[in-house]
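A quick aside before the break. I want you to see a complete sequence-to-structure record at least once, exactly as it would be stored in a machine-readable document. Don't worry about memorizing anything.
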Amino acid sequence: MPLVLVLASEFTDDMADDRSLTPDLPRGLTTRPLQPSDQRAVYELMAASERAMVGEAMIEEADIVADWQRPGFDLATSSIGVVEGDRLVGYAEHSGGDRVDAAVHPDELERGIGTWLARWLQATALQAGQAEIGMPVPAGSVADRLLADLGYHVRYTSWGLELPSGTSVPARPLPDGFTVRAAEADEYPLVSDVIENAFGEWSNRPRSTFEEFDAAILRRPGFEPWNLRVVVDPDGDVVGAGLIMLAGDGQEGWIDKLAVRRDQRGRGLAQALLVDAFWQAREHGATRSTLATDSRTGALGLYERVGMEVTSTWLNRGIRLAG
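That is the input. The structure line, written in tokens, reads:
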């Protein structure tokens, strides 16, 4: 049976319930919703896909655990696995809002699995009331080419950056009375607010609650209090925050968040937080530091000025589902 693609201009609520429009999977493949016990299999699948496309695995199993334990996220209705025998060969999830994720094992490409998963994501997100979905893919990769062929447009560009091992970055001075330190437990809600307010200025995703912050960060496997850094002003108010985690068997310091309150920008606080993150990662055994940024933030120059180098380029490709 030929594969059927429903593009944005054709996609309607009635079609979301019409399974005759869903492409057939090859004989021998079955599908089922994912469950918590699949965390390891999904991690291994995503890691294999990333290694094939960009040369290294950027995903951590803890990322999946943290993502799936968010309040309100229902694996039974928001995920699907493609299985051959007992082996997971493809997966997809609608993570909430316009965010989706999917992967196909590199040994199973050219079987139509990616097209089937894209179609499933469109139907699932539309049924959840979403008008558009998108996901990041390495520029020029097989995933990028597939989504382009399926009608997905480029929404924005993102980059992976690295501070090479051995690079020396001098400390950035803070204004008088300001301090960089680990966040205290009673400051965690304030940290969540600073991060959400900053990211909400350029992101279209729904505002995260503190309960989601708690699940994704504080209860993420491996989290330690030193991971969450803050800048406090002379009155002790949290005006900036950063999240640094160890990855890659402890050899990589991954800077996951960096945010400064709007009224405190232009004073060097972001650079001070960034350099503090580099030093904290090295103090805890990392030999290199990495992070990601995208074209919506305008922060690429900040990271390049402190010596970071672009190591990968990603495109967030999206498609309209209705309207």
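Two observations worth writing down. The CA atoms of residues 122 and 321 lie 7 Å apart. Residues 1-21 have pLDDT under 50 and may be disordered. We'll return to this after the break.
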